[in-house]
Amino acid sequence: MKIKLVFIFGTRPEIIKMSPIIRQCIKDKVPFFTVHSGQHYSRSLSDLFIEELKLPEPDYNLKIRSKAPHKQGNHTGRMMIKLEEILLKEMPSVVLIQGDTNTALAGALTASKISTTKAFTGFEIKVGHVEAGLRSYDRTMPEEINRVIIDHLSDYLFVPTSDAKNIAVSEGIKKGKIFVAGNTVVDAVHYARDLNTRDEGRGTRDEGRVHSPRSIVHRRTKQKKRPYILLTLHRQENVDNKNRLKKIVEGVSKVSRKHNMPVIFPIHPRTMKKIEKFNVVLPDSIVVTKPSGFLDFVHLETNAHLVLTDSGGVQEECCTLRVPCVTLRDSTERPETVHVRANIVAGIAPGTIVQCADKMFSAKKNWENPLGNGKAASKILDVLKRGQ
User: Please, where are the H alpha helices in 29-141?
Assistant: First the structure.
């Protein structure tokens, strides 16, 4: 069977990290199609990223939203029903999924189930997991459950580091399935940074939107070249818990006051809803903005003095850009960023957040990037082409 790929994605990080492989497929003329689950459904979290990263419009858009945080099975199951119809119609040879979302889990489960019916369909679908082998060892996170299951269903595990490979091997996964490719986030960040550099000073516009070279910070805060802290917050365990959310806001506010820097907060729609529901008061030093496109966000990261986040992808982006990062969680599945001292895990206690921020403000920005050299996409595609 000739190679035919399907990319299944549904969230901002998936679009970003799949984009280099999709562009490599276009370059190498490898047949593929794309499916957008609709897990992130707003323009600011989906369509804009597809436009900026110069990706084709999805061939299928399922528009399947989560009904509630506790209805994980409902969310995943509805995706599987739709994905089964598409995969049986299109008959791809490989499903490519990324990360640890319900979308990724649905893709892996559906493809694996179809392959068990080869006697009826006459074909099977291989599963390729981009960013495999990551573990936080926190089973209270739905993402951790997802990534473990996906890895054990996958035929190709594209791990970002040798440490991730060792984790997969320790769980009994055959070495022949595991390929150290680096992290495609490096490819994507290099691409965005190059676009920003080329556009610098030219005021490039796209449908009325000024690209990142014109600093979004200066436009929104009306402060010229004032140092700032960047904040992102969206994890279910943080924003759905009133006590945790309030502690994080308190800690971030203390960091802002101590260092006399505003905090730029491109707010996730889910987080905004919870802040309003819980009546959490944000101080004036936290400047709330709408979610940024990827080019603007890379620009924000690049120029930040410090990033506070609960996002795994942002931890990786900061490591790649050599921007100090403080993770507002109790654990991380990106320990390599901590090992090279690009990142520190603070938890949610306000005092600890301040201490960790102080430490990262004085961090040397000379670490080696453990996530690869920006050639992960070509490595992944080479493996898939050899495997057919």
Answer: 47-52, 72-90, 102-115, 118-121
* CA 349 – CA 386 distance, rounded (Å): 49
**pLDDT one-digit tens code per residue, 126-139:** 999 999 999 999 99
Residue 268 dihedral angles phi and psi, to the nearest 5°: -75, 140
- pLDDT band at 46, cuts 50/70/90? low
Among candidate residues 1, 237, 244, 211, the one with its CA nearest the CA of residue 126: 1
**With 0-12 CB in 10 A as exposed, 13-18 as middle and 19+ as buried, what is 1?**
exposed
What is the architecture, at CATH level 2, of domain 5-183+373-387? 3-Layer(aba) Sandwich (3.40)
Pick the CATH number of 207-361 from 3.40.1030.10, 2.40.10.220, 3.40.50.2000, 3.40.190.120: 3.40.50.2000
Cα torsion angle, 36, 71, 141, 249, sign: positive
Nearest to 305 by CA among 243, 340, 255: 255
State what percent of residues in the chain have pLDDT above 70.
91
Q: Angle at CA 246, nearest 5°, toward 242 and 251?
A: 150
**234: annotated active-site residue:** yes
DSSP string, 217-250: HHHHH--SS---EEEE---HHHHT-HHHHHHHHH
Consecutive H or E run containing 98: strand 94-98
pTM: 0.87
Exactly one of 211, 234, 268, 299 is catalytic; which is it? 234
